[in-house]
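Quarterly update from the structural biology core.
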Amino acid sequence: MGKTSDRNEDFYRKLRRKIQVWLDKKGGSGSRWADVLMSGPDLFYLMWKLSMHPEVPVKSRRILAATVVYFISPFDLFPEAVFGPVGYLDDIALTAYVLNRVINDTPPQLVKQYWLGERDVLMVIKNILINADKFIGKGLWDRVKRRIG
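Predicted structure, tokenized:
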């Protein structure tokens, strides 16, 4: 594994731990968006791995890579430094939206290989997209989707 790979593996583990600690303090799975927040690290990992895989179309890899940058950037709609792990909700929604767009052009065996979540990835994505306007705000979520195209 190279340095970039190690950093992203560490990001995945740290993110999962950070969210779990925060949820435990807030009452664990009783938190309104606990399932969505806990799916974030798994979605990030899938997106990151697909963004580098040569079997994924170049256009899809570029979109995925740009979304990886957004996810790890401290400057976004809901900064994690201000909102804590709840700040990942916009990152998770955007990741689900992008994965939903590129997953049909991605070899299914790659999605299966890189999905670390316990539930079906398509159901996780669908659930997030159905509820994104509730945790981001409908007007804001609509603007984000329009901007992505």
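The CA atoms of residues 30 and 138 lie 24 Å apart.
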